[in-house]
UniProtKB/TrEMBL annotation:
<feature type="compositionally biased region" description="Polar residues">
    <location>
        <begin position="20"/>
        <end position="30"/>
    </location>
</feature>
<keyword id="KW-0732">Signal</keyword>
<dbReference type="InterPro" id="IPR036908">
    <property type="entry name" value="RlpA-like_sf"/>
</dbReference>
<dbReference type="InterPro" id="IPR051477">
    <property type="entry name" value="Expansin_CellWall"/>
</dbReference>
<dbReference type="InterPro" id="IPR009009">
    <property type="entry name" value="RlpA-like_DPBB"/>
</dbReference>
<feature type="region of interest" description="Disordered">
    <location>
        <begin position="1"/>
        <end position="30"/>
    </location>
</feature>
<dbReference type="Pfam" id="PF03330">
    <property type="entry name" value="DPBB_1"/>
</dbReference>
<feature type="compositionally biased region" description="Polar residues">
    <location>
        <begin position="1"/>
        <end position="10"/>
    </location>
</feature>
<protein>
    <submittedName>
        <fullName>DPBB-1 domain-containing protein</fullName>
    </submittedName>
</protein>
<feature type="domain" description="RlpA-like protein double-psi beta-barrel">
    <location>
        <begin position="38"/>
        <end position="153"/>
    </location>
</feature>
Amino acid sequence: MMPSAGSVSATPVPLDSDNQDCPISTNDSNPFRTITHKGDMTWYSQGLGACGDTYNNSSMTAAVSKMMYDCWPGYTDTGNPNTNPICGPMISDSCGSIIPCHEPLTATVYHGENSIQVKIVDRCTHCQVNDIDLTPAAFSALAGNIGIGRTNVTWKFNKIGAP
């Protein structure tokens, strides 16, 4: 069921006056995590994601905007995007192309009366702050056809521990 219109963020996430590139947030109060996002949904070819895990175009995975990824509370740009808390907790030290390194955060994406759940595993450099970029399989499952390329959606992070 789609979230009510009252829960949709009509305005951008507030920016910190000291750092205009990132929203005001702490680990306890993360506006990215708590609001329903309204933006565009696009699709991309999946491979090795910014979180360091490899997925394919048949996976139900997604990328969030560069701003959201880079400004996620607890992330410090050490040159290794795999350490970003948005990637979820590390579950394996001996990960690679078959064994994932992280247990990704999940989000539910709504389009019309349809919804799907995706794992957040990547960073979208061309997305606006509330956009989401899906694999072809996820995009098709929600919109019916990747041929449309871009469409409006709402989406929200699921609670930690939710399937």
